[in-house]
C-alpha cells in the first residue's frame, strides 16, 4: 500500500514539473518512512518527531501576539 502511494506521489510531482521536490523526496525517503518502524497503533499519535521544532513554533506564535499587543500600547500610550 505505501509503495503504491509513494510511486503515485513521485509521479504527480514529476507531472507538475517539481524536479527539486522529487529529488528531495528521493533523498529523504529513509527519513520520511521512519515512522513505519513503529507499531501501526502508534502511527496516528506521531505528530512531531522534532520536539525542538515544536517549541520554536510555539515561541514564534507567542512572539507575534506580544508584538501586536506592544504596538497597540505604543499607539494608545
Explain this structure to me?
This protein has 77 residues and is mainly α. The chain has two domains: 1-46, no CATH class; 48-77. 74% of the residues lie in helices and 0% in strands. The protein is built from five helices and no strands. The chain is flat and about 60 Å long. It starts with a helix and ends with a helix. The mean pLDDT is 81.
Summarize the model shown.
The protein has 77 residues and is mainly alpha-helical.
List keywords for this structure.
77 residues; 0% strand; 2 domains
SSE topology:
Blueprint: H1 2-15, H2 19-27, H3 29-32, H4 40-43, H5 51-76
How does the overall form come out from the CA principal axes? Answer: flat
Described by strand count, sense and barrel closure, the largest sheet is: none
Mean pLDDT: 81
Radius of gyration: 20 Å
Q: How far apart are the termini?
A: 61 Å
Number of domains: 2
Strand count: 0
Percent helix: over 70%
Q: State the helix count.
A: 5
Alpha-beta content class = mainly alpha
> Which regions are unreliable across 5 or more consecutive residues at pLDDT < 50?
none
Amino acid at each position: 500500500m505505501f509503495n503504491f502511494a509513494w510511486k503515485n506521489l513521485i509521479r504527480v510531482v514529476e507531472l507538475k514539473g517539481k524536479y527539486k521536490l522529487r529529488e528531495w523526496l528521493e533523498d529523504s525517503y529513509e527519513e520520511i518512512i521512519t515512522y513505519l518502524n513503529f507499531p501501526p497503533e502508534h502511527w496516528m499519535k506521531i505528530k512531531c518527531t522534532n520536539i525542538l521544532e515544536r517549541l520554536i513554533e510555539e515561541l514564534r506564535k507567542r512572539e507575534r501576539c506580544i508584538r501586536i499587543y506592544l504596538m497597540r500600547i505604543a499607539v494608545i500610550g
